[in-house]
Amino acid sequence: MIVDAVKYPLTDDDYLKTLVIGSLLVVGSVLVLPLFVLLGFFTRAIGNAMDGDPPPQFEEYGSLFFDGLKLTAVFLPYLLVFVVLLFLVSLAGSISEPAGIAAFLILVPVYFGLVYLGTSILFHFCRRRRMRDPFELRAILDTAFGLRYLVVVLLWLIVLPTLFTIGQMVLAVTIIGLLVVPATLVYELIVYAKLIGDLTEFT
Predict the structure, then answer these.
(1) What one-character DSSP code corresponds to residue 37?
(2) What pTM did the predictor assign?
């Protein structure tokens, strides 16, 4: 699983072009708009991995940008639920300390639950890129309850980001390495797309 994911970015014949363009978009993300193109690319990469196709290329930027906006919109309602709960916790804490503690104890599992289910939400959106799919809670829960899913979540949210970050810090010691770091971020994104896309084999 990990080996296939790490090799996946190289399965596209034009992977160097993808990494170069992606690097420019990573740097340009400080302007916000390129970030949505990268999110759209991530969405497409997951979809391609599901279909057994090589990673997408950076083309049809308007379509990629729109897909990035859609992905952002998908997670906004879930974020809103958490923000409302956070407000209620603060309100309960202002009323009395016991009420605040009780509300906080409810908030913590909700937070980690949303983080855990986020991968399933992402997976179901990328499958067809339909806005209703990531809100079909039964399908999301069915995908989330499995050992393979747990492993994927741990890999792409904890283990691999840690390893990539260490490698990027080592690269950043030199000027040339620092210039390569944005390309490694794009490479990393495609690796995660493969891990998530391969969940389709178990759903």
Answers:
(1) H
(2) 0.92
Give yes or no for a contact between 68 and 35, defined as CB atoms under 8 angstroms apart.
Answer: yes
Compute CA 153 distance to the chain's CA centroid, rounded to the nearest angstrom: 10
DSSP three-state, residue 35: helix
Domain locations in the chain? 2-202
CA angle, 45 then 167 then 114, to 5°: 50
Q: What is the 3-state secondary structure (H, E, C) of 89-136?
A: HHHHHHHCHHHHHHHHHHHHHHHHHHHHHHHHHHHHHHHHCCCCHHHC
pLDDT tens digit sequence for 83-128: 998 888 888 888 888 877 888 888 899 999 999 999 999 999 999 8
Q: Which residue has the tokens 């039964």?
A: 138
Look-up: residue for tokens 């879930």? 78
